[in-house]
Amino acid sequence: MDLSAAKVIVSVAIAVVLWWIWRTLEWVWFKPKMLESYLRRQGLAGTHYTPLVGDLKRNFHHVEGGKIQTHQLTDDIRPRVVPYPLQMLKTHGRTFFTWFGPTPTITIMDPEQIKEVFNKIYDFQSHIHSL
């Protein structure tokens, strides 16, 4: 009797661990890669997904590089304040996507497209994460 109860407990524990591994893989890899593929099929350009960190590491390196340079008050401060989005703008154009961890972030700089998004606000899904 004790042996069969132990087998049931071990089986349930294995099932829970396998379920947790599947959910983690889905969150970290499968869903972001599916979203990346979908965005590229829609014609958007952007960076390739990096598991868990997304573009945070690239953004950090651009910001650190901007701190080294000295600037005058008359200089354009955009390269120092937002160097990574400016690099993406130069590389991919006025509409692109980047990654904030496993979540894609779409940047739209075309006024007509922005107007369309605001006019159809309920058609576009938006997630606001509080810190």
From TrEMBL:
The keyword Oxidoreductase applies. SUPFAM superfamilies: Cytochrome P450 (SSF48264). It is a single-pass membrane protein. Keywords: Heme, Iron, Membrane, Metal-binding, Monooxygenase, Oxidoreductase, Transmembrane, Transmembrane helix. InterPro entries: Cyt_P450_sf (IPR036396), Cytochrome_P450_Monooxygen (IPR050665). The chain crosses the membrane at residues 6-25. One of its GO terms (cellular component) is membrane. Its cofactor is heme. It is found in: Membrane. One of its GO terms (molecular function) is monooxygenase activity. Belongs to the cytochrome P450 family. This is Cytochrome P450. It comes from Microthlaspi erraticum. The lineage of its organism: Eukaryota, Viridiplantae, Streptophyta, Embryophyta, Tracheophyta.
